[in-house]
Amino acid sequence: MKKIEAIVQPSRMESVKEALVELGIMGMTISEVRGHGRQKGHTEVYRGNEYTVDLLPKMKFEIVLPDAMLDTVIEAILRSAKTGKIGDGKIFVSTVEDAIRIRNLDRGEKAI
Amino acid sequence: MRKTACGALFFLTLFLGASLTGWGQAAASPTAASPQVDRHLSDLDQQVHQAQTSGDNAWMLTSAALVLMMTGPGLALFYGGLVRRKNVLGTMMQSFTLMALISVLWAIVGYSLCFHSGSSFLGNLGYFGLNGVGAAPDPDYAATIPQQTFMMFQLMFAIITPALITGAFAERMKFGALVVFMILWSLVVYDPMAHMVWGKGGLLNATLGGRFPTLDFAGGTVVHITSGVSALVTALYLGKRVGFPKQPMPPHSVVLSFIGACLLWVGWFGFNAGSALAAGSLATSAFVATHLAAAAAALGWAGAEWIRNGKPSVLGAISGSVAGLVAITPASGFVSPMPALLIGALAGVVCYLMVAKVKAKLGYDDSLDAFGVHGIGGTLGAILTGVFATSLVNPIFKDAQGNALPVGMIDGHAGQVLNQLIAVLISWGLAIVGTLVILKVVDLVVGLRVPEQDEIEGLDLSQHGEEGYNFEA
Predict the structure, then answer these.
(1) ipTM of the complex, rounded to two decimals
(2) Chain B nearest C-alpha distance from A46 (Å)
(3) pTM for this structure?
(4) N vs C: which end of chain A shows fewer Cβ within 10 Å?
């Protein structure tokens, strides 16, 4: 089993979600995060005081999936999340040791 | 009521007609008709007076409510939005506490110290516990409304003035220390200033025996200069917030500040137009001047920002309107509409530069710009009142025959500007000395500033055990 963490632009969230659901991915965790890679922030001014805001809002998807689906899912995320500009985000892949369904104690690929 | 009036007039005409034509020979001293007519006439008198009182009292009670609204939630929201999230409740609590605290103090001694006769500097305790303050008007102040109405209206001013100071020491003052500080400040700074400008026999009173008649319609000196300058003193005495100026401390909710500022603008109609103490044309004039100054000032500040920063901000626009309202406060019942626009526009630009340029250069932490807006705006407004006040709007000075005398510089009475300057100097002096002494005393007895850990944790948790927003709940 593999885990994908995909950090994407908030404006691409809906299309990434749709693409995943189309592939039959039923389980995902989505969180609102802040961060940056090489993207510059912006400046806000309040009563003459300038503030550089470089923690930018992003959406993070966490998906655990069977090894066999990895390439298709990565390709789907890339397709739906890309705008071509700096700040599009990143995908991280890691290996998952185990997965357990809390309701009925299913283990392994049966649980995801 | 109309029928009685018509009836009385009819009989009066009959009586007059009868006596003139000689028909009244038998009724030359008509003991039957005369007391009836007299009674009708005095009834009429009473009804006319009651009607006027009704109109004036309705407006004044409404104005008092509007001014209270300026403190809560107006100022509470305006300031609350400007601080960091962890201090939103602590900030609002300061305004709200004053609504309660000053009211009690006012009823017991405050009103008397301000508005009873006494010396040139302070009233005596003749109205202790509001003794003698009832339905009967006090004609020296407002002849057509109950004195209790006048007292309530003035109370709302006494509440909001110290609330303005809280902006300077936001996010770092102990709540207990605030309570003690405010009681002392209200007694030592506000009450003497209010008495000097508005009280019978006050040193600066324009109409009731002042040595240096000062024009301050709704409180440029009494409210804005005293609070603004005291704000600067406390900001300097308490020192900067932990992390200031390196750590970013942007407002946590300009949305809240926006709502607060709009409530302030609307409430200010009660503040200024209500200071006419009646519902007549002077109230209208003050209403107009107030609104135009706010409008011009909002454009002034936003325009200056647009030029200097490339973008006009919402915070700038609303701050501008507040600055204009501050500056027009002393002038509102004395100036025509066009000078009101000018005063507003100047206040918008001057206060913007004060806050955005001068403050940064001087480096003090007047967290919410209480001095920059109220201290400077109030000083500017007080002086310009002497320039633009005119008898065409408010014939406040009269000669022995009752003819209107020149009021301000545009009337030809340039000396008024000098009197305004004297009042400005006195208010600055009283604010500085009074506040310094009080700060020293409270610091020694209670301790003013919260410990550093409490400041970092935030006032909401450390002083009140609460959080403003529990969105996960």
Answers:
(1) 0.82
(2) 7
(3) 0.89
(4) N
